[in-house]
Amino acid sequence: MAKKRPQTKAKRPQITDGEIPVVGAREPCPCGSGRRYKACHGRAAAQAATELVQRPFEGLPGECDWVALRELVPAATAELTLKDGLPEGVPSVTLATVLPMAWPALRRDDGSVLLGLQNDTASGDISRDLADTLQRALTTEPGTPVQGRRAPADGPRLQDLIDLDSAFAPVVHSGFEFWVPDAENATPEVAASLERANAAAIPTVRLTGVDAAYWCETPDKNHLRWVMPHPEEQLLDALARLHAAGTSSLGEGTRLVGSFRAHGLTVPVWDLPSSVGAEEIEKPAAEFAERLAAALATDAPLTPDERRARGGLTNRQVTLS
């Protein structure tokens, strides 16, 4: 009788952590551990995808304007400067609030790239998701939209791709004609999307005398929404001091009504009469900025009236993200 050969298990190929691909959550992990991906190397990816980055645009030039374009401004663009320069065949990279058909990004026929900002993202880090979309847009075929996906947990963020010393200068548009070089000859699908978007856009103007303040027109009244970089608690204290002193308005008929909280920053909001346009609010906004700077520099405890004013402002705060 022939002797039985001892059975030996074939050695699995050794894969380093950096080489392990992303697979389905219930599939065997490619590392060879025998466990499902979600219980092995997928655990870190899942945690990274759900962990919310409170200030995803922190460190970028114009952080306050990034927040405004993400949450408040219907139609705007801004040219982006990349750290390593533009790849061959890509004449420009432009950030846009919204793209046709809600595409995350679009590589135009001429090779230029449009990156959409107001799309839903797959993880808790908008910056990483946008960077992943941007990288894929730079290499996709001209004339092709880029679809969304879950960005690799160890992928770069916008802060790694964008020149942090460059200027960030948003241009606010009255409509979305910037989507296509020749709007009159757009495809029926894009033309219909353009018409719907233009009909829903609220007229918006970026003030020139102060940073990241946006006037907008609504049927009943106008508003000023001003994204501010100061720490939330310090800013609320300062606003409360001004409110209690009766100096928180922007002129006759205007009123500080509350604030938004968006991507780690605070956005005070004023109601304005319908007769007050963007130009009329420029000087009052600049004067308010001076009063606010003085209030921010004060570290005295709040008075009872100031505490009541602060409580009212806090109760009227709405979180957007």
Rg from alpha-carbon coordinates: 25 Å
Integer average pLDDT: 90
- Ranges where pLDDT stays below 50 over 5 or more residues in a row are 1-13
- Which class best fits the helix and strand makeup? alpha+beta
Shape: globular
What are the salient characteristics of this protein?
12 strands; 16% strand; six-stranded mixed beta sheet; alpha+beta; 321 residues; disordered N terminus; 8 helices
What does this structure look like?
- The chain has eight helices and twelve strands.
- With 321 residues, the protein is of the alpha+beta class.
- The protein has a six-stranded mixed sheet, covered by helices on one side.
- A hairpin with a 2-residue loop joins strand 10 and strand 11.
- Helix 6 packs across helix 7 and helix 6 packs across helix 8.
- The longest helix has 19 residues.
- The N terminus is likely disordered.
